[in-house]
Amino acid sequence: xxxxxxxxxxxxxxxxxxxxxxxxxxxxxxxxxxxxxxxxxxxxxxxxxxxxxxxxxxxxxxxxxxxxxxxxxxxxxxxxxxxxxxxxxxxxxxxxxxxxxxxxxxxxxxxxxxxxxxxxxxxxxxxxxxxxxxxxxxxxxxxxxxxxxxxxxxxxxxxxxxxxxxxxxxxx
Length: 172
Description:
The protein has 7 helices and no strands. It is mainly α.
């Protein structure tokens, strides 16, 4: 096996399994799906029950497809979209570093960028896309993963994100 194909396989599987485990944690961890729904609702993603299910399904399906190298740019777009929503609703206000008390955005940014990079380069020879002779081209992989993922996140946030507004301080 070519070292580049091995590297792409390792990266796809690591990212895909990580994203699947995020979905698993939403479904079965801590407060399970109802707790995830309450958490999403508290961040302004309304209705929380819908967003918990959508995020969990996206993480399971896109994580698995990405790990397998199946429809790679579209799987990457799902990962990018979920990471954008997570960054904007939960992580950006906390700063860059994840080790801060409320977790910064470095982690979600790296997952999204790595997904776009793999979609741009291509999933490699050890992938279902290759076995099925599905090709997107490098620009196609980049535009689908980054463009569709960003557009999906923007549409979701524009339509359904309603964070609580903090009251203005007196004298301003």
